[in-house]
Design a protein that fits this description.
The structure is a single chain. This protein folds into 3 domains: about 15-75, Roll (Archaeosine Trna-guanine Transglycosylase, Chain: A, domain 4); about 85-195, Transcription Regulator spoIIAA; about 215-400, Vaccinia Virus protein VP39 (Rossmann fold, 3-Layer(aba) Sandwich). It has 10 helices and 20 strands. It has helices at about 20-25, 85-100, 140-145, 145-155, 220-225, 240-245, 260-275, 290-295, 315-335, 350-365, and strands at about 15, 30, 35-40, 50, 60-65, 70-75, 110-115, 125-130, 130-135, 165, 185, 190-195, 200-205, 230-235, 255-260, 280-285, 300-305, 340-345, 370-375, 395-400. Helix 2 packs across helix 4 (about 145-155) and helix 9 crosses helix 10 (about 350-365).
């Protein structure tokens, strides 16, 4: 069967420099441009290429793209990446979620359906929102076959999906010629209301962050509910109020802070959706760092869930300083016996580096700080053991004396 990406790997061949094949042999799914010795043929963005070592031994095949990540590997076997190939991979991802009990769950109908390298589909993200799927392509190769991918998802999910929306505007490089804007690939929808652990949320899948909702914090939000009993809670970088909704279950007061007025409007709507007009909640449009300056002794529990401070390694030093500064201010501000939930979603920030930033922050304040929990992403964001970068979400729960 002809590839849905129109097979051209025979003509397009990449040979790696001597010694640069070791990460591929350890099944890492990325090949960086600096590892390439020579390119045969004339591959354009999104083409299939075969990858060989310096001794002309086959290593892998994947999607080619100009840039730092030159090849996103699809297979370490010399196969034909046709429709059946992608059908099997997507079916495997769906079956994995079924085993997690995420389908037919009356309490939760929002989860990650396909997680790129975690599901051996580098460049493809798909999130499930109550029978609607929002996809994001991170590579030209996946973007070129987005219609076929949508058809496969619809075929596999059958009645479990009514609409599929492509939201790749923010994830593809600006210079990629394949970028044609967002839109529905199947069906249509006016508004999405999802259920997560029994709570209701309106999802802004068209203009919101990521695909509209931070699905990866589901289990961590539930932990916030556990700790927020009778507390005064501050949710910084609160976005559309996910943590705030959970905290409101038992908290005495919850304040949501974000720099986006649109996000805060949705946060207020989500609070009303779950609690009606409840004056325990307030929202503030403000810079999180500036807001913390005025918060000393005001809160028992603070949530720090900022956007990625570093998306590339060259930004890592400044990112670590940013995490140190943010956590230092929160540790200084929180009441005695208070609890801080602090996160990093920066892929290039390791858990150890993040922990060191928090250590430096605590040391500078002079307060005693204990780690109650090490947090991460849920099982629908599986970590590919050969791709440590897929473990992007790091978090700690701190107890501050």
């Amino acid at each position: 069967m002809k590839s849905i990406n129109q097979i051209n790997a025979v003509q397009n061949k990449i040979v790696l420099k001597s010694g640069k094949d070791q990460s591929v042999r350890r099944f890492h799914p990325w090949i960086f441009s600096g590892a390439i010795k020579k390119i045969y043929g004339n591959p354009v963005n999104g083409d299939i290429v075969e990858v060989y070592d310096n001794k002309d031994q086959f290593l892998a095949l994947g999607h080619y793209q100009t840039g730092t990540i030159a090849v996103r590997i699809l297979s370490f076997e010399n196969v034909i990446p046709d429709r059946d190939f992608f059908y099997k991979k997507i079916s495997s991802a769906v079956e994995y979620r079924k085993k997690l009990g995420l389908f037919n769950n009356t309490e939760t109908n929002v989860f990650r359906l396909i997680y790129a390298e975690g599901d051996y589909l580098s460049g493809l993200i798909a999130d499930y929102y109550n029978r609607m799927v929002v996809i994001q392509m991170h590579s030209a190769g996946m973007y070129k076959i987005r219609d076929e991918i949508a058809k496969i998802i619809a075929e596999i999910l059958e009645d479990n999906v009514v609409a599929i929306y492509d939201r790749s505007d923010a994830t593809l490089p600006e210079w990629l010629e394949v970028k044609n804007g967002n839109g529905f690939l199947k069906g249509d929808a006016k508004e999405i209301i999802v259920s997560e652990n029994g709570y209701k949320f309106i999802v802004d899948w068209k203009t919101g962050q990521k695909t509209g909702f931070f699905i990866d914090q589901r289990e961590n939000r539930a932990l916030v509910q556990r700790y927020s009993d009778t507390m005064e809670v501050l949710n910084l970088f609160g976005y559309t109020g996910g943590f705030s909704v959970y905290a409101m279950k038992n908290a005495r007061k919850v304040d949501t802070v974000d720099s986006s007025s649109a996000a805060l409007k949705l946060a207020d709507e989500n609070i009303r959706l779950n609690y009606g007009d409840d004056n325990r909640h307030s929202s503030y449009q403000a810079d999180a760092f500036e807001f913390l300056k005025e918060c000393k002794g005001k809160y028992d529990l603070i949530i720090l869930d900022p956007p990625a401070f570093a998306k590339h390694n060259d930004a890592l030093p400044n990112a670590l300083l940013g995490y140190k500064r943010l956590n230092m201010r929160a540790i200084e501000a929180i009441r005695t016996g208070g609890i801080i939930f602090t996160f990093s979603c920066s892929q290039v920030v390791s858990r150890e580096n993040f922990r060191k930033s928090i250590f430096a922050a605590a040391a500078n304040t002079g307060r005693k700080v204990r780690i109650l929990h090490n947090l991460g992403q849920p099982a629908d964001h599986p970590v590919n053991i050969f791709h440590p970068e897929s473990e992007y979400l790091k978090g700690f729960v701190l107890y501050v004396e």
